[in-house]
Amino acid sequence: MWAVVAFVLAAVMIGAGIAQRTVFQGPDAQTAQFDVEEGVPYVLVDGGAMTAFAGPQTLRVQGEGELFAAYGRTADLEAWLADAEYAHVTADDAGAISTATVEPVVPEPTESAAADDAADEDSAEEDVVPGRNPVGSDLWLDEYQQTDLLIAPLQLPAEMSVLVAADGTEPAPTDLSVSWPIENSTPWAGPLIVGGAILMAVGLFLYVLGIRHVRRSRGPRRKGLPLPATEPIDIAVDDPDKGVISATPTRRTIGRGRRSLVAVPVVAASALVLGGCSADAWPEFGSTPTPSPTASVIVPEGQQAPAVTRPQAERILERVAATVAEADEAHDPDLAATRLEGAPLAERETLYTLQDAIDDREGLPAIPTTPLEVVLPQATDGWPRTFLAVVNDPEGTAATTMFLTQQDPWSDYKLSYYSYLEADTTLPDLAPVYVGATQVQPDSPFLIMEPQELSAAYADVINNGEDSEYAPMFELDEDQFRIGVAADRQKRLDEFNETAESTGELTFSTEPGAEEPAALATLESGAIVAVTIEEIDTVKPTDDDAVIKLDNNPTVQTLTGVDESSEGFSTVYVDQLFFYVPGQGSSEKIRLLGYVSNILDAKVIE
Questions:
Q1: 3-state class of 595 per DSSP?
Q2: By three-state DSSP, how is residue 117 classified?
Q3: Is the pLDDT of residue 258 over 70?
Q4: What share of the chain is helix, strand, coil (3-state, %, to 5)?
Q5: What DSSP element (H or E) covers 18?
Q6: Which intervals carry biased composition (Acidic residues) (predicted)?
């Protein structure tokens, strides 16, 4: 009786467990299909539509040819699409998804622009600008590109959106859908199946015991007739007439044989029912691990989102380095201008001119990309936008600090400043990359010196040393750049005076650079400020009959295009300098963080 009860309960438990994993298990995902109008070049899937349901999203795009998808901040994608027609997929508060076509925003023309448009009306059709290809933009946090079918696993918050396109010219694919997983785990399916298998084994054991009990509890048997005594049989005798009687196996042997035959189906059944149980068929025991507390930075109220993420900054640096390396190889200033601006571009333009004329002219070091130690993005929703990057030298020498700037949503980031940090330089405390830093305006009164005055003030310090009126504001004792410039100038002046003191003169001067300063705030209310200065070396004759020859100076000879001059020459070097400028009320002084110097130009004095 108990064996039958165990069998019934085992069947119920196993059946219930299997049913939870089969007929009673619901779908594992829900999908939303987007109805997109045909003919538009872009589709913007808003963050509200991507997060219409909870859980990670899987974007599915199907079409012909190359398919493209990228995600980023919603404000950035809308800015990139401001001048283009696109389909906008949104969701209301109830989760209902709808699609609308957004027309491009065309700025109102001025009177002069209207006149120009009227004059060029006949040729307007010939000047149609082709669609803008979204592939490779620095604005995306990540992008995907596949052929015919694109499936992208995503996990986006509500403030991020997805851009879908072909190449910006061809119509965007219209077969779009997003799916979200549904929680359909069956934590008791595993225990029910295992419990049923155990109970079935118990039932089999009880069944065997019941049969044994019935056999032993039968009534008394009739006593048989006495059997004659038997003699032992000698099986060693080789006699064909001798019979051999085999002994009947005992009950214990029979019992063991039956148990072994019964155990096989029990084990097999357990293996079959357990083979389909995955991890979500079992309950989770134990508490959820709690992350250990870490130091946090309070985001100032009203501060905007950081311009880039760390992976985005790494990808931008790699693109900049690859383009500049290609330009260095080809001596192509136009290619370099796609990723460089300001002093970094000007010094490479000069370098390419020298390399084309001088065979053994060495190039500039490549733009480093790894290991990226520091990323400090500007916190802004507008343009231009900037971020600071510090890359350590893998060989343990000077690290490189850089400012990279993006002028508008459609432009690539360009390297606007770079320098090499001194070996013992300690950077001030900076905000984490997920917070970002505010940009300090050139005329900011919150620093002990306005960024726009820093270049002229430091140029005066280089010219006059400790006698400069600005010298008390700078940390001069640890300024290796100023010390090196002074030593180099004195050495060159001594060498010049040995041979040409009576017929010529060599003078040095320093002027502020033409570039606008770049500055991002630090956590101590100070700022990291990058500026340029120009060092000008002037050599000219003091005797009316004397001339300055360039026999041993191919650099100046190449840049000026002459071998000698009776008026003299001036050589210009550009210095890119990074400073830490403390905030108002601080007892600290302005500290030089890093520098780099390269030749910029040479001219004949007129």
A1: strand
A2: helix
A3: no
A4: 30, 25, 40
A5: helix 2-21
A6: 117-128
